[in-house]
Write a structure and sequence with these properties.
With 448 residues, the protein is an alpha/beta fold. It folds into 2 domains: 134 residues, Transcription Elongation Factor S-II, Chain A (Up-down Bundle), CATH 1.20.930.60; 298 residues, Uncharacterised protein PF01937, DUF89, domain 3 (Rossmann fold, 3-Layer(aba) Sandwich), CATH 3.40.50.10880. The protein contains 19 helices and 6 strands. Strand 1, helix 12 and strand 2 form a beta-alpha-beta unit. The structure holds 6-O-phosphono-beta-D-fructofuranose. One of its GO terms (cellular component) is nucleus.
């Protein structure tokens, strides 16, 4: 079938997403369209491939019965891929997962015009696909607990070991800083390391293993010109003007290198008495390929403790000890983070999560997906300040730390770049540019 025929059939508009509209695969020249048409089917194919490749090992670990379960799951994922590529309506979820009712209520309330892959809001279509895959495993007898992305996450972790080592060595050299100015300087560097850590994402690479290579501290200088919005000073003030008896929350994104950088920043906050507790909010199901689950979090600390180098072993022990002393807390059991809801809906649909975030003095939202949820997956006019774009979402002080991975900020990048006399060098892709914002509940500290 000709692509134009497909477009006609799915009612695709040959243009970019209009300003103030929701992002959607409905617009052919959008990253959402490219994602639904090309990226998501690749991700599904890669799950099938890895299940087929790891079949023997899975059966060895989960028993003979897993062979039938694998066959069913592979068949169901192929069907899902077909549904996606032929723009079928979203189906209600089967199974007994904790969040199933909430998901189905959400799906049932979708207008008929926006409940298929190419017609829905991009956020809804993308989350729905990952949630459907999870349902297929939940329905099996043997593979309910199986994380079909774990192998890739572990490989990416292993590929970043050298960077972990270099980062920890540099951090250890600098740990002894004493003066407020030195502390602020180190905080600024760690925020940048953390920001760039968000580039290591297995969903954007379609599941191909990507790891951090080279010395992350060294790389900071060269990356500086790609920072689009930088409110580090305001984030620092927000933390450093307290007595240190505060909670800082991370709404985590990717496992592997990015989680490692989260842990380094959190370690800094605790070891310099800038915060009394750091909480980590993670995903309860395998999500967007590399997102952190409770199991990934625990595995990371254990793997660091068992590292071949004393530097990483010491770090692993210190971080694990923070869990024991209550300085770190892993928040698990919350399915809101894998719901299709944007954060503005949190207070009404999940008040308990909103109340929990209110306990924190600062919440750091990691990554592109959280950023999209902050902004409601809307293509805002680039001049709209961040504080307006997040609408009524005001649980506490917020910081968004993400590298830009979709297209709708391209215009804004150019806008910002033009006004700041910066440029995107040829060959540099939008994925490597950055938006970095803080919102304070006292004042709008920054925007675009
Ligand atoms: O890990 P992050 O930073 O949330 O980004 C992941 C996601 O970024 C996007 O490419 C664009 O938002 C999603 O399609 C994607 O998979």
């Amino acid at each position: 079938m000709e692509i134009s025929e497909l477009d006609r059939k799915f009612n695709i508009i040959d243009g970019d997403t209009p300003i103030n509209e929701h992002l959607s695969a409905h617009y052919k020249r959008s990253f959402a369209h490219y994602t639904v048409k090309d990226r998501l089917p690749v991700i599904l194919t890669r799950i099938i491939d890895s299940l087929s490749r790891e079949k023997e090992a899975i059966i060895a670990g989960y028993g003979e019965e897993a062979a039938d379960d694998l066959k069913d799951v592979i068949g169901n994922i192929s069907k899902l891929k077909y549904e996606l590529q032929t723009d079928k309506k979203f189906k209600l979820l089967d199974g007994n997962d904790t969040d199933q009712e909430e998901w189905n209520a959400f799906l049932e309330a979708l207008p008929d015009t926006h409940n298929s892959y190419f017609s829905a809001v991009w956020l809804h279509a993308e989350c729905y696909m990952y949630r459907r895959v999870r349902s297929m495993f939940e329905e099996t007898t043997t593979l309910r607990e199986f994380d079909y992305f774990r192998r890739q996450k572990k490989d990416a972790f292993m590929g970043s070991l050298e960077a972990f080592q270099q980062l920890t060595e540099k951090f250890n050299e600098k740990r002894m800083v004493k003066t407020r100015d030195e502390l602020r300087g180190l905080f600024r560097q760690l925020m940048r390391v953390n920001l760039w850590g968000n580039r290591i994402d297995l969903s954007i690479s379609g599941g191909k293993i990507v790891s951090q290579c080279g010395d992350p501290f060294e790389a900071l200088g060269n990356l500086e010109e790609y920072i689009l919005a930088d409110d580090t000073a305001a984030v620092w003030d927000c933390i450093a003007t307290t007595d240190g008896n505060i909670i800082v929350d991370f709404v985590c994104d990717n496992a592997g290198y990015e989680l490692f950088t989260d842990l380094c920043l959190a370690d800094f906050l605790i070891s310099h008495n800038l915060a009394a507790k750091v909480r980590f909010h993670v995903k309860m199901i395998p999500w967007f390929v590399s997102d952190v689950t409770p199991e990934d979090f625990r595995w990371t600390l254990d793997a660091l403790k068992l590292s071949v180098t004393a530097t990483l072993r010491d770090l692993g022990c210190r971080l694990s000890n923070y869990i024991e002393t209550g300085h770190f807390e892993l928040i698990e059991g919350e399915y809101f983070w894998t719901s299709p809801r944007d954060f503005c809906e949190m207070e009404s649909v999940k008040p308990s999560v909103h109340r929990m975030l209110q306990q924190a003095h600062l919440v750091i939202f990691k990554g592109d997906l959280n950023y999209r949820k902050l902004l409601g997956d809307i293509k805002w006019d680039p001049t709209v300040p961040f504080v307006e774009a997040i609408r009524t979402f005001r649980p506490t002080n917020l910081c968004s730390l993400r590298t830009v991975k979709a297209d709708w900020w391209r215009d804004c990048h150019q806008d910002v770049l033009k006004s700041s006399q910066r440029r995107i060098p040829s060959g540099w892709r939008v994925v490597n540019t950055v938006l970095f914002s803080l919102h304070s509940n006292r004042a709008a500290l920054s925007g675009l």
